[in-house]
Structures are given as structure tokens and as C-alpha cells.
Amino acid sequence: MTLQDIINDSQRIVFFGGAGVSTESGIPDFRSVDGLYNQKYDYPPEQMLSHTFFVRKTSEFYKFYRDKMICLDAKPNKAHLKLAELERAGKLTAVVTQNIDGLHTLAGSKTVYELHGSVHRNYCTKCGKFYGIDAIINSTGVPTCECGGIIKPDVVLYEEGLDNDTVNGAVSAIASCDTLIIAGTSMTVYPAAGLVRYFKGKYLVEINRDATAIDDQCDLVIHGKVGETLDKITV
Ligand code: NAD
Ligand code: ZN
Questions:
Q1: pLDDT tens profile 108-142
Q2: Candidates 51, 80, 104, 116; catalytic one
Q3: What distance in angstroms lies between residue 103's CA and the mean position of ligand 2's atoms?
Q4: CB under 8 Å to 192, separation ≥6 — which residues?
Q5: Is the pTM higher than 0.85?
Q6: Could you identify the atom of ligand 1 that is nearest to the CA of residue 226?
Q7: pLDDT digits (tens, 9 = 90+) for 169-220
Q8: Contact (CB, 8 A) for 95 and 83
Q9: Considering only Cβ atoms within 10 Å of each terminal Cβ, which end of the chain, N or C, has fewer?
């Protein structure tokens, strides 16, 4: 069966994606970030993106974060756009993403579970006041609230747990879909990657440039680019 056959035969598709979904928008995936980082920063990215690091070295955190985690020029690519189209057509029930770039929402998708949060939401750690991305990019050093508190991105850092409502929404979408498309993720970041075990539908599909540990569980594996692949689908 082709991907088109599977989509034609599905009514409740869920898309589970990772950093590879946004590389065609020019946002590097984790490994690429890692490579770039080594020449410029004194710590590995996993450490710089940890809760401890945010608390202890907030200004170093923001240096890396502004440089590498915020890509304001990036626009939704063909993958984001096709998924929004599938949702509008009533074929897709949810996008579950590990990305923090907000590109699914920008493309028009409505039901999006952002497991790792979003760079577009930020909160004061003292009074809880909400700030958009402007507060981060239009400030230097450590961004602070009117109340004097430090502003923190609503992004799940290493050592932090995922938001319960987001996880519950993602689990119930995955558990009730007929087709799960896993794309652009190395399936190595937990607990996010573990959520796909709730799938009990008909077709499990993977679209990924490189091979992953779940290849042999899938009904269809496409080793290619997710944007190029989805672009060929007729809704
Ligand atoms: P990862 O970097 O571990 O793996 C990306 C996978 O996508 C790789 O297997 C690669 O082969 C594949 N890939 C890259 N470009 C592709 C394309 N065009 N088409 C198909 N496949 C492609 O990513 P991950 O599994 O999401 O884990 C990385 C973590 O880093 C996540 O927790 C995520 O939150 C975070 N992250 C987010 C962003 C973002 O928001 N855009 C960017 C970098 C990292
Ligand atoms: Zn405040």
C-alpha cells in the first residue's frame, strides 16, 4: 500500500513529529545544533537546555537560546501546510509535536499538542505574567518582568516534566486514531517517543530521512523528506 492509499482509507489520522519536520523550513535539528554549538559554547546543548543550567547560569542559557532555539525567519513548509489541509478536510484529528517552533499553528493547524512547549509563550517565574516572543528577542541578557522576576520560556527543559494536559490530549488522540504517521524524529527523546505505544489503530507509518528503532514495527516506512513526501498527497 502507498501512503496515498493509507490516507484515502483513514478517517482519524494523527501525526507525531520531531525536529526533522522543520529542517525543510531551515531550522536545524538537534544534531546539527550540537555540531554548531561545539565551536561556540562551553557546554553541550543538553546541559545548556537543562533546568539546573537555567537556574544557575541564566544569562548563558539565554545566549544559547536566543542564538539557536529562536528562528523567527522560518516559515511553515510543505509538511506543515499539508497537515493543516488534512485537518480542514476532516481527515486528521491532531498533530503531536516535539518541536517548539510554533510552525504547525502558523500553518493553520488547530489541534496541536506541543509536548515540549513553544518559544512563543513565556512566563514570569515570580508573578506568572505572560510574555510573547518579543520580550525575549527585544531584550538582552536575562529578560525580566515588570515585577522584577525572571521570564522563563514555556519550553520543557531537560530535568523538567511534560505538561499533564498536553500529554493527556496527545495520548487520547493517539489511542483513538486509525492511522499514526511518525515523521522527522529519531525517536530517542523520552517520554515523548514513548507515547506512540498507545497506538492501536490500523496503519503505522514512518517518514524519516534516517532509519530508526521503530522501522520494523511500521506498516509503511518511507526514508525520505517529510515535506517532499506529504506534498505529493492529494487530500
Ligand atoms: P532529532 O534531531 O533527534 O532527529 C531528527 C530526525 O529527523 C533524524 O532522524 C533525521 O534523520 C530526521 N530528519 C531530518 N530532516 C528530515 C526531513 N526533512 N524529512 C524527514 N526526516 C528528517 O529530533 P527529535 O527526535 O525531534 O528530538 C530532538 C529534540 O530537540 C526534541 O525534543 C525537540 O523538542 C528539540 N528540537 C526542536 C526543534 C524545533 O522546534 N524545530 C529543533 C531542534 C531540536
Ligand atoms: Zn512578574
A1: 999 999 999 999 999 999 999 999 999 999 999 99
A2: 116
A3: 28
A4: 98, 115, 116, 162
A5: yes
A6: 19
A7: 999 999 999 999 999 999 988 999 999 999 999 999 999 999 999 999 999 9
A8: yes
A9: N
CATH code of the domain made up of 3-27+71-116+157-231: 3.40.50.1220
What would the grid cell of residue 20 be? 526533522
- Residue 225 CA: nearest ligand 1 atom is 19
Cα 23 to averaged position of ligand 1 atoms, centre (Å): 8
Residue 14 DSSP one-character state: E
pLDDT score for 28: 85
Q: Shortest CA distance to 210 belongs to which of 222, 229, 223, 227?
A: 223
Give the residue extent of every domain in the chain: 3-27+71-116+157-231, 120-155
**Does the active-site annotation cover 104?**
no
